[in-house]
Specification:
Blueprint lengths: L1 H21 L6 H21 L5 H24 L5 H20 L2
Helix pairs in contact: 1-2, 1-3, 3-4
Length: 105
């Protein structure tokens, strides 16, 4: 169950990062509220996952899901730059996440 909590927390991290961008510095109400609610939910689910998963594993995977997810959302919906180096960096992050998962018991 901890891995499901962690995955959900990572997805919510992507949502709050995107909505924070949409809030334009917390000057738009709806995206600001979405940011705060999903941020709290993400932290809460992360804390539930950390009841059984090691700190290093849980935190690394949570931030990795958020980082790669925000990268993909930025390219897909916000027209951010795509380059070979940025894609290679994302692949390295995902590789690290896979290794972290495989190394945890």
């Amino acid at each position: 169950m901890a891995w499901i909590y962690l995955l959900a927390a990572g997805v919510l991290e992507i949502v709050w990062a995107f909505s924070m961008k949409q809030s334009e510095g917390f000057s738009r109400l709806t995206p600001s509220i979405i940011t705060l609610v999903t941020m709290i939910a993400s932290f809460w689910l992360l804390s539930l996952a950390m009841r059984t998963l090691p700190l290093g594993t849980a935190y690394t995977i949570w931030t990795g899901i958020g980082a790669v997810g925000a990268f993909v959302i930025g390219i897909t919906f916000l027209g951010e730059q795509v380059s070979a180096m940025r894609i290679a960096a994302a692949v390295l992050i995902v590789s690290g996440l896979v290794l972290m998962k495989l190394s945890s018991s």
